[in-house]
Amino acid sequence: MPDLHDLYDAAHDFPRRDGAPRLSYVIASTPRSGSTHLAACLWRAGDLGAPLEYLNPLHIEQMSPRLGAAGRPDYWRALWALRTSPNGVFGHKLFQPYYVMAAREEPGFMPMLAADLTVHLYRRDKVAQAVSLARAQQTQAWASWGQENGPPGYDRDLIGRCLTSIARQEQWWATVFALVGAPSISIAYEDCVGREDEVAGQIRAALGLPERADCPPVRIQPLARQADQTSAEWIERFRAEVNQRLDAAGRRRDLSALARAIAPP
C-alpha cells in the first residue's frame, strides 16, 4: 500500500523546467478539511501542478536533501523546477502554523509565496471536521492509505480542543484574506466531493487557464473517505453532550458561539 510521504519522492516529479512558474495558486485550509483529497484530484488533472503540503517541516526535511536545498528559498526554487506542471502552473496547500513558522524563521522568503490565486477550502460541518482531526491525532492515520497506530477512543475534551483550533485557524485565514486582498475563491468540502472535475474547472477559470491544457494526466491512487460509523457516532455523541451542557447553562449569550459551532450544516 502506498504511503502519503511517497508523493514527495522523485518518482512523482514533473519534468524539470527553469525559472519561476507562469501561474501559481495556494490551497489555504485547515486540517481535515479534505485538502489532501482535493490536492490529489487537481494533481491528477495534469495541468494544475502538484499542490501538496510543501511547507510542512516533515516534508521539507524529507525533500531538501534530494533537492540540494539549504533554506526555504532554495527549497522553493527547486520545487518550482520539479513540481510545476508542463503548462507552467505551480500549486501548494498551506495550513496556518506553517505560514507563521516560515514568516518567523525566514521573513525574506515570504514574497516567494505570493500567488495568483488563493483557494480557500473549508468544511461546513465543523463538528465532523473536529472529530476527524481528533481521530487522526490519536491514530496518526492522516489519509486512507495510512495504517492506524491503534483503535481510537472517544474523547470529548480532545474534540472540543480540535473544534476551537479549527475555528481560530479559520478566523486567522479570514484576517489574512482581508489584509492581502489577493484574488481568491472559496470552496466547501461538501460541495467538492463528487464534483472534483467541476471544482478543477473553477480553479482553471479563476487562473485564466483554458478548460483543459494539453498536459497528460498524472497517475495517483485516489484517496478514500476515512469517515465511518465510528465517526458518525462520535459526531452525534459530541453534539448531544454539548447541547446538554448548553441546556444546563440556560443557553447563555456567552455560549451562543458554541451553539452555532456545533449546529449541523
Task: Sum up the structure in keywords.
9% strand; alpha/beta; 265 residues; four-stranded parallel beta sheet; single chain; Rossmann fold; 4 strands
What is shown here, in short?
The protein is of the alpha/beta class and 265 residues long. Helices cover 47% and strands 9% of the residues. It comes from Caulobacter sp. 602-2.
What does this structure look like?
It is built from ten helices and four strands, in the order βαααβαβααβαααα. It is of the alpha/beta class and 265 residues long. It has a single domain, classed as P-loop containing nucleotide triphosphate hydrolases (Rossmann fold), CATH 3.40.50. The mean pLDDT is 89. Helices cover 47% and strands 9% of the residues.
Number of helices: 10
In the CATH scheme, what's the topology name?
A: Rossmann fold
What is the percentage of strand-forming residues?
Answer: 5-15%
What is the helix/strand order?
A: EHHHEHEHHEHHHH
Helix content: 40-55%
CATH superfamily placement: P-loop containing nucleotide triphosphate hydrolases
Q: Which shape, going by the Cα principal axes?
A: globular
Number of strands: 4
Question: What is Rg?
Answer: 19 Å
Any idea of the CATH class?
A: Alpha Beta
**Structural class, judged by helices and strands?**
alpha/beta
Mean pLDDT: 89
Distance between the termini: 34 Å
Number of separate structural domains = 1
| CATH architecture grouping | 3-Layer(aba) Sandwich
Flag low-confidence runs.
none
Largest sheet: 4 strands, parallel
